[in-house]
Design goal:
The structure holds two protein chains of two kinds.
Chain A: H1 8-33, H2 37-57, H3 61-82, H4 87-108, H5 117-121, H6 129-148, H7 150-158, H8 160-163, H9 170-209, H10 215-240, H11 244-275
Helix pairs in contact in A: 1-6, 1-9, 1-10, 2-3, 2-4, 2-9, 3-4, 3-9, 6-9, 9-10, 9-11, 10-11
Chain B: E1 3-14, E2 17-28, E3 32-36, H1 43-50, E4 58-62, E5 73-76, H2 90-96, H3 110-122, H4 138-150, E6 156-160, H5 168-182, E7 186-190, H6 194-197, E8 203-208, E9 210-214, H7 221-227
Parallel strand pairs in B: 3-7, 3-8, 5-6, 6-7
Antiparallel strand pairs in B: 1-2, 1-4, 8-9
Helix pairs in contact in B: 2-4
The chains are: A mainly alpha, B alpha/beta.
Chain lengths: ~280, ~250
Amino acid sequence: MDNLFEYSFVVRSLLGAFFASITAGLAGTYIVSRRLVFLSGGITHASFGGIGLGYYLGINPVVGAALFGLGSALGMEYMSARGKMREDSAIGILWALGMAVGIIFIYLTPGYAPNLMSYLFGSILTVTNGDLIALGIISVVLIVYTSLFYRTLLYISFDEHYARTFTRHVDLFKYISVGLTGLVIVLNIRMAGVIMILALLTIPANIIMLFTRQYLRIIILSTVVSFLSISTGFAISWFTNLPTGATIVTVLVFFWLVARIVRSLKRSSKIEKMKK
Amino acid sequence: MSVLFTIDNVTAGYEEKVVLRDITMAVEENDFIGIIGPNGGGKTTLLRVILGLLKPLSGRVDFTPGDLTLNQIGYMPQVAQGDILFPVTVEDVVLSGMMHGMGATGRMGRKEKKHARKVMDELGLTPLAHQALNELSGGQLQRVYLARAVSGSPRLLLLDEPATFVDSSFEADFYDKLRLLNSRMTIMMVSHDIGTISTWVKSFACVNGSLFYHPHSKITDEDLRLYGCPIQLVTHGDVPHIVLHKHS
């Protein structure tokens, strides 16, 4: 059997997985605890429209995705803050529109049609140096941002009405946080794809929240869970020839199921102890 | 007694709906004011104006008489606002009461944690310090929010319907804690239940568009009618009893 690490693209993929895990750990904890999973689904799929536009205009699809992703993230935060529209409806509309626009632009693009599947589940095996640099930068930005403003971010997320009594910048922080979330999604999209990003942002934080309610611990441990899941899925797909992205997502869900079972076993043994 | 701050001819409201009209009041240091009045009468709006969260349409809140600052105000909003499934511990929530004046990069070091521990001790929360909010009972949750409001050692404490989600067996204990706190801070408490709070507060303010201040804790039906304060009066005598009657 081939040795995985003989190939430089494997090392590169793992480095990509490492950065994806950091961004997913930080952004995912924010998204899950603030109940923004549906919103990030909307951003993710809206970005897909940007990818289509990028292809059509002949520019880097990531630039198109960045425009759409960032625009939709800030736009939705603005609309929900103003209370002008039902937030979930706005997200649903944007979600459908993003996918539709993406498909139309790709259809209209003459010549080579990109593989759409690669944007659903990503192509972690072909991660480029550019991807790695971009992911490295956003990882550092997120780490600095979160550690510098940790308490403020925590308390705005928990109870923004109260937070307004001690800081005048609640809205600014909300926009920056959602904007960074949009960027995380966009920069991961080539490597991880629309579906895997959603899984990475949602599942690890949910797994850890079954066991702890300490925000910082959730960030750190969900980063670890992300990396473990990606590596495990990567290895399984390597030896079985299954599609990598889909395998990783399945591994994540499997880990989540195991975690739920472990948690309920723990609970029932606790109750047994209390009975005695 | 000296004046802590004054509310001078304040008119306030939201998007073309005026809720408070030309309110004037001087709040004295170490008073314990029960703010009563009908729903939609502007009780919460009044607190928001004092907190600087809502700019008055005209008039102003003047902090100069008692050298009060916004950072010296503790606030306990209606309990329903925080998301109790959010991953924070009791200690985290209590610490958030000390963010005032710290700036956006506020750090919680050993000194702050020690002070938070003291506040939690006083309110009987220490054994719960590392618990998540969804593991607490209504009474415990209420004390957590009170701890958050007072952990910054405020000079003025604003409470908005603090007893909404608590059954009455906890109430006496809670008001007892407030009375203790009142020895070192001025308290303004919104409540719909005059009967219960009349045992604890020192004075009343009735807010119903306009404001009437009543400098004693004994308020009668007559007073309420005079103030145009259409709320049901529940009185406590030596034998607790409830008097129900129609306003006509």
